[in-house]
Amino acid sequence: MSRVLDKATQEALAARLRFYRELGLTELYRRPVDPAQLAEAGGESGADGVQEAGEAVADVRPEQHSFTVSQEKELISPRKAVSAAPEIGAAVPAAEREAALRVIREDIGDCTRCALHRGRNKIVFADGDANARLMFVGEGPGADEDAQGLPFVGRAGQLLNNMIGAMGLRREEVYIANIVKCRPPGNRTPEPDEANTCSPFLFRQIDVVRPEVLVALGATAATYLLGQRQPLAGLRGRVHSVRGCRLIVTYHPAYLLRDPRQKKEAWADLQIAMRELGLQPAAKGPKE
Length: 288
Ligand code: SF4
What we know:
- The chain has 288 residues and is an alpha/beta fold.
- Helices cover 43% and strands 9% of the residues.
- It is built from twelve helices and six strands.
- The chain has helices at 7-22, 35-41, 49-59, 66-75, 97-108, 143-148, 155-166, 192-209, 219-226, 232-235, 253-258, 263-277, and strands at 127-128, 134-138, 175-178, 213-217, 240-242, 245-250.
- A six-stranded mixed beta sheet has the order 1-3-2-4-6-5, sandwiched between helices.
- β5 and β6 form a beta hairpin.
- α1 (7-22) packs across α3 (49-59) and α5 (97-108) packs antiparallel against α8 (192-209).
- The longest helix has 18 residues, at 192-209.
- The radius of gyration is 20 Å and the shape is globular.
């Protein structure tokens, strides 16, 4: 028999799935379920909505649970290809980089190329030094960023500022951008067609700035920079190569706010970036 999860359980499930995604766990599957077992369970939700919601994805067949057929599609998008990155653009002299970035912003214009334009207030282009040696790439703007038109200005932005400070740098010395430039509704993960449509602008920005080191903040940034999906755990702790830059992968600051235990791991990743830049390691990691 088909049933629909209540709104609170749906939201709890969506939050849990976002958490898994930030962790790099994007491959979810359903185990076949014995109909007798399901009947025995009575098909009712228990007190722990989150736990039950998570189990619903894993344990219930589509024909037995309307959530798995319709709503799950909104929460777990089907596997779609990550577009191949465009060819690397010609090097831009340092003195012309500001102007070259302005040209990219003008090309974006009042963009309606993907569905994300419908809910945005401001396009969030980037922030920082056009000649930065270090560039951070996040997933997409949140509510604060959408309101101000700048990347990483909310709580996660404060933590990123602290991380940058702990590296012995100032925010003004680095360059910060996102995979998508408009806020996804409800801060959901950008859909592949949205990220594939918007990321060529980011690639152009990378080609202009030519940072020595790129830091991908979270699984979505790593996916579209590297052009392949892989769990975050398999990407961290080593140096990748992207568009002539060295790439380090670490956790998104929003994830670190939810699970501060991982800050130590993120700091270890940033120390790899510092080593690549020839920066002296600081005694301590970022402040809370
Ligand atoms: S996310 Fe990027 S491609 Fe989509 S509307 Fe905004 S600027 Fe355009």
